[in-house]
# Entry
Amino acid sequence: MIWLNRAEMMSAARTGDLTTIRSPIERAFNFLRRHRVILVPLVIYAALIIVGVTTSSIGAPFLREDPAAPLGFQLGQSQLIRSDEYNTESALWLGQMAEGFAQLHDPLSVSPAYFAQLPAGPVSGIVFFDGTLLMLGPWLPDAMLFAMKWWLPTVLLFIGMPVWFKQITGKYRWGYLAAVLIFFSPSSMWWSGRPVNTIGFIVAGCALGIFAARRLVGGQWIAGVLSVGAAGILLARFPSYYQPLAIVVGPPIVLATAGYLFFANHGVRNRLLALGPLALSGAAFTLFTALENWDSLSAVLATVYPGDRRSTGQGQEIGAVFGATNFGWMESVGTTALNTNQTEIASSFTILLVVIGFAFVAQRWNSDRATAAALIPLVVLATFWLTWCTVSWGAVGEMIPLANRVPYYRATNATGFVATIAFCLYMTQWRTPQRRAVPAVAGGVAALASAVAGSSLQAIYLPDLATWMIWLSAAAVGLVIFALLQWPDRWYSLAAAGLAASVMTATAVPVLFGLADLRASDAASDFLSAGRQAREAGAVWATDSFYVDALLTATGTPSLSARQQMGPDRHNWLRLDPEGTNENTWNRAGMYYTFDWTNAPEIKFSNPSPDILVMTASPCTVAQRIPELDHIVSGKELDMECLELTGEFNWSGSQHWIYAVHHGGA
# Structure
């Protein structure tokens, strides 16, 4: 009987009815049922970690030893356009695993830890706790650690969003739909899940913040304080990722939560308890994390590009703004327009903002003040960002704080995420209209908007988008909107919407088991060893290939050629450019820099594009200016006095030669 809880034993003693005593199996089942909204995503998350599966594009042909014979197992094709992911972000994570508890970075750039969400000190080690866990790489399987970090924002999204909706509206189901629409949005799928990285942490932090507020107001101090601290940790991630997207999607969720907490609590004391500790916790963790990374943040603000760049609102083609429902065809038809790609033009379901407007006019929306206070910031800010990417704001826009950090085309990418959350929150209070004409007309309006946007895409960005594709997409949108407004309380209408979104983009990303050639190849194995030796000796490498640079980053091999994410280490750049005459070429953020090996005694700097720097130089000259250089990689055979051939390897399907650098050669 030791497994009986005290309440059950006392109840049985009073009534003499042993049937009131539940077995351990029954109690376990009830526990699982009550907490399934958290436990089910966690179980799936654990399974993904154990298998080591992700949707990363690190299996791209460029990062293969032999693209014709790729190692590991992958379903689907890598997104070649996502070099930011496979050349930088994922490579940095893998590099942290190789380095263990060391906090090293390539000598020419300041630490990229803040933007890569890796620890740079004790506070950021807590805030970026998943990055801290990557330091266990020398002891735990890299594929499992990589999957852990890859899927964490997603599991937080699928836990946080339904819980947040339940807290505000009493309903989980619309929160699940919002999570599905966000996850499978074209903008998310073609951005390697970057929007989810921001939204997942923010919505989970806000849900935990509401939980903490209720505990504090109710006098449950221990649970309240612990929860508000955890919420602050999650919310502190907000400014650390890709800022233009974060500025669009973050504040609406935070303000919606604040509005709800203000009106859900009565009296000054309760409101202060609900909002004050959460605000202080989030601000404190954000501030101290930023201070630990202040050198890097200062460097990026002082860069020539992008530096202190100001943006303003500007008109964008309607196809890009409202065309998300047509982007399901983008994988098959591609884009042939100049100066753009799938990532740049992909958007989310901004069309839902139009549906909210129609529904509000067609039928009265009944809601309590707290829910309305949560909805209003979402709708207002979604509308603001819609104007940012459809209307010219001119010089006025450049003076609006935060907004002036968001280029109009990034607002195009992200506005639909806010519209999606607003629509789902609005629908929690929607009642089936007496006339079917209301959902029918709403579906017709959505279908028309989809068709117009699709026609615009066909004319400008996607000339191979067939007319039947446009009509099919429009019909699907119209039917889904009709079903959602006609049967808002039926699971099948929401399931149909989620299925339509997932079918549209599910095949746009690869499914990768393991870490492909970045761990399974002989080249990766050799550079893991070389990187360890270089770190111990304080030495660095350099290459003439962006893709070999990614291999070096992923194996923790310090290099003079890499990706300068946040800004330059001026002291070391001035060793290469003593007079600073080429500062405009290297004082840039988000820049790839590499070498073109020659026999010329001087170093020439050039920017083929704003985010690429090529240094044409002799390895001997570079070694004279930076004596730590002791090995280089070249895509062609070299014959110089300071070089000694020590090996060769294949990468990206090409042969590369490794040379030791002997100092004193000319």
The mean pLDDT is 91. The CA atoms of residues 201 and 538 lie 37 Å apart.
